[in-house]
Design goal:
The protein is α/β, with parallel strands linked by helices. It contains twelve helices and nine strands. Helix 7 (154-161) links the parallel strand 3 and strand 4. Mean pLDDT is 71; it is low at 76-87, 272-306 and 331-371. This is Esterase. It comes from Longispora fulva.
Length: 371
């Protein structure tokens, strides 16, 4: 149960008004013998409902507890762990699958140690590019895609997401699309991912699919130190993207909106002239890499009607910096959100999407199942 949803807030206030109104109406109508007890009980119940309503408002404003589960059993505070420069917690497990991964990349379900309290319907899915295995000392940028369960086109989207610089693609399936449910994912997910994999500390990209479009843009706005760009794919109400898109523009963060075929762009949505996108099946010479937006602007790509998710991941990959080699990771890596994304040339070929091993564990030495 979400504690930050509008329906929860409205229901709480409606119930409080009903209790207070009932107390006032029945104040002189209670039976004489039980009047003292009933009056005291109704007053106490009214005060409790008022306190609950105030608590819901404060919780929604501060995003303290996104769900009832986190209120009853809050996650334990984690001690800070130093990030490894040359290896991640899953590297030993991945090394045993390096032969397959070096050819076409690797995909597997991920069960982080601290993910038990995450508001997700299933374990996140991770796709690693082949370069992750070919460059064992490098760190890679990340694309975090928030999607409803059963989102189609996962394999094709992963391949398209690798069309630019190699990147780690993570698919997450949250319980709902309010900002509170994504707060834990905005802070805990990058920390856990950085412990398990070799990731860059900043300039990631957030992609929201369907109803998660607004939440992805809001996540990038709340965490500019981590997310450099954001995209929304086929949002049900495109007009809702106007405010978060303008907020990201003020932070000089690139924004992209990928609408379903036939959907008109709202007049208030800040999108400039479209940039064509070629189908991933086209030859490398015929494909033109999208040009990242300049600082303080937003970008929109017009995808092929059948593959808005593919086009969105191609755009997100174009916003990411190149992988950091050991010489770069040896020093202090900047986490400034104002740095423009790098845009090296398009990779000559796209690694094929792969299916994880049938018995691939989600954690080292723990059995699991591939997608």
């Amino acid at each position: 149960m979400s504690l930050t949803a509008t329906s929860t807030l409205v229901g709480g206030f409606a119930l409080a008004i009903l209790v207070v109104a009932g107390t006032v109406t029945l104040w002189r109508r209670w039976p004489r013998r039980a009047r003292l007890v009933l009056r005291s009980g109704s007053l106490l119940l009214s005060q409790i409902m008022i306190v609950i309503c105030v608590g819901l408002v404060v919780n929604r404003s501060e995003q303290l507890y996104p769900s009832l589960e986190t209120l009853i059993d809050p996650p334990k505070a984690k001690e800070p762990v130093a990030e490894s420069v040359t290896s991640g917690g899953l590297d030993e497990w991945l090394r045993a699958r390096s032969q397959q991964g070096a050819k076409s990349g690797l995909a597997f379900p991920w069960q982080p140690a601290g993910g038990g309290h995450w508001p997700v319907t299933e374990h996140p899915s991770i796709s690693l590019p082949a370069q992750y295995f070919l460059q064992p000392n490098s760190r890679f940028p990340v694309i975090v895609a928030f999607a409803p369960p059963g989102t189609p086109g996962w394999a094709d989207a992963r391949a398209a997401g690798r069309a630019g610089d190699p990147a780690i693609v993570v698919f997450v399936h949250p319980h709902n699309n309010d900002a509170g449910s994504l707060k834990l994912l905005g802070t805990d997910l990058p920390q856990e991912l950085g412990r398990d994999l070799r990731t860059t500390p900043d300039r990631w990209s957030a992609v929201g699919i369907g109803k998660y479009g607004v939440a992805a843009l809001d996540l990038a706005r709340r965490h500019p130190e981590r997310y450099r760009s954001a995209a929304a794919v086929t949002p049900p109400v495109p007009a809702e993207l106007t405010a978060p898109a303008k907020a990201l523009t003020a932070l000089s963060s690139p924004v992209a909106v990928f609408l379903a075929p036939g959907v008109a762009v709202p007049s208030g949505l800040p999108v400039p002239s479209p940039v064509p996108v070629v189908s991933p099946s086209a030859s490398p010479t015929a494909s033109a890499r999208p040009t990242p937006g300049t600082r303080g602007t937003t970008d929109r790509l017009v995808p092929k009607p059948a593959d808005p998710l593919t086009a969105a991941l191609r755009w997100a990959a174009a916003q990411l910096p190149a992988a950091l080699d050991p010489a770069q990771t040896a020093g202090q890596v900047s986490t400034s959100a104002t740095l423009p994304p790098s845009a090296p040339p398009l990779a000559p070929s796209t690694p094929a999407a792969t299916t994880p091993p049938a018995h691939a564990p989600t954690r080292p030495n723990a059995p699991g199942a591939g997608r």
